[in-house]
Amino acid sequence: MIRKIRSKLSVKVFFITLLLVAACCSVTYLCIARFAPYVYSHELAEAEELAELFATELSNIPQDEVPFFLPNYDDMLADRFDGEFIIRIFNSSGKEVTLPHLDTITGRKVEDFKSGDLSKPYAVSLLDGGEEYSLLIAKNAGKESQVVEALQKSLPILGIVVLVVSVIAAFFYSWYMTAPIKKVSRLSKQMADMDFSGLCSTTRTDEIGVLSISLNTLSQKLGAALSDLQEANQKLQADIDMERQLERQRVEFFSAASHELKTPITIIKGQLQGMLYQVGRYKDRETYLAQSLEVTDNLEKMVQELLTISRLDTPGYAFNPSPIHFDKLIQDRLITNEDLFMQRELTVEKDISPEVCISGDLQLLQKVVDNLLGNAAAYSPAGERIMVNVWQADEKAHLTIENTGVHIP
């Protein structure tokens, strides 16, 4: 229970507000109960003028007329001071006598009253002589006790009212203060979990409302920034993967190229050594010099391909595309490689649509087509066919080169 109270702001605000309201109401009640009997609007000294007047008038009347005058004095005193004071008369022995006949002793003495509750005594000697009395004005203790009794009787009802009001006030205050804070807390937890889709709805314009609006703005900006960052990371990862793939292909290519270069170099070296030392068949230098020249030409082509690839990998290389009639390019490369096809005894079947236009680098495209045609010729047995098709569909140029007699396992 204590742990739940400590962990919930709304519960803490509820109990704090409940205790504060209950404490304020209780202190107010205690102050009223304690000080209400003593906060009269009149002071005892103000009533002494009437006490002196009453004493003077009583001294001028006989005892048998006292019952007619004293009630009038009581009424006058009650009207002027709202019943806060009453008349008290004591005999010469200091004992209180009953009003208005002055013939019965109540049993109380002057010493039984607090000094602050009585005015100073005024001597009263009745006209027909007899005993001498003292007239005093005293606070009405009965009225004080009525106030205290009324407060005591109202204590249970007031306690229930205070409790109900305190609970309602605490509930409303805790809801009003903590409801927007709960929304802010939920949104901040979503943001901590990298979820920026939530918003904190509020219509308040105070500091909590400003905080909610600022948190919404922060969430939106962080969400947009995170989305951009994720897209950038995906693009970067794709670029890295592509670069790695290109690097692998580059390594594989240079490995294969090194192997391809080694073969003609070995052939040329062997032929040159044989012709230099005139060993066996290599005595016929003219024949093998021609073969060496042919091998050198192939080697030159391979070196040119390596240079082209190296140039393409150069960061400063500029790719300059231009409009190209792709159908005419294929026709031209077929004518260029016609002797190769004749040497290999291959038949070329072509189906080339006219007016097939593309945009690209002419020299690079020529190398690509020459490589494709050269591979088709190199790996096709004699007497087979090479079928070349060129057409345009969906605003794209299509090229297929198919050789018969062999297949990729």
Key features of this structure:
10 helices, single chain, 409 residues, Heat Shock Protein 90, alpha+beta
Q: What does this 3D model show about the protein?
A:
Strands 3-2-1-5-4 form a five-stranded antiparallel β-sheet. Strands 7-9-10 form a three-stranded mixed β-sheet, with helices on one face. It has helices at 2-7, 9-35, 44-58, 66-81, 141-192, 207-277, 285-313, 326-336, 338-343, 362-378, and strands spanning 85-90, 95-97, 105-109, 122-125, 132-139, 322-325, 347-352, 357-360, 385-393, 396-403. A hairpin with a 2-residue loop joins β9 (385-393) and β10 (396-403). With 409 residues, the chain is α+β, with helices and mostly antiparallel strands. α2 runs antiparallel to α5 (141-192), α3 (44-58) runs antiparallel to α4 (66-81) and α5 packs parallel to α6 (207-277). The chain is 61% helix and 14% strand. Among the domains are: 2-38 and 146-179, no CATH class; 46-141, 2-Layer Sandwich (Beta-Lactamase), CATH 3.30.450; 320-409, Heat Shock Protein 90 (2-Layer Sandwich), CATH 3.30.565.10. The chain has ten helices and ten strands.
Show the helix and strand layout:
Blueprint: H1 2-7, H2 9-35, H3 44-58, H4 66-81, E1 85-90, E2 95-97, E3 105-109, E4 122-125, E5 132-139, H5 141-192, H6 207-277, H7 285-313, E6 322-325, H8 326-336, H9 338-343, E7 347-352, E8 357-360, H10 362-378, E9 385-393, E10 396-403
Parallel strand pairs: 7-9
Antiparallel strand pairs: 1-2, 1-5, 2-3, 4-5, 6-8, 9-10
Helix pairs in contact: 2-5, 3-4, 5-6, 6-7, 8-10
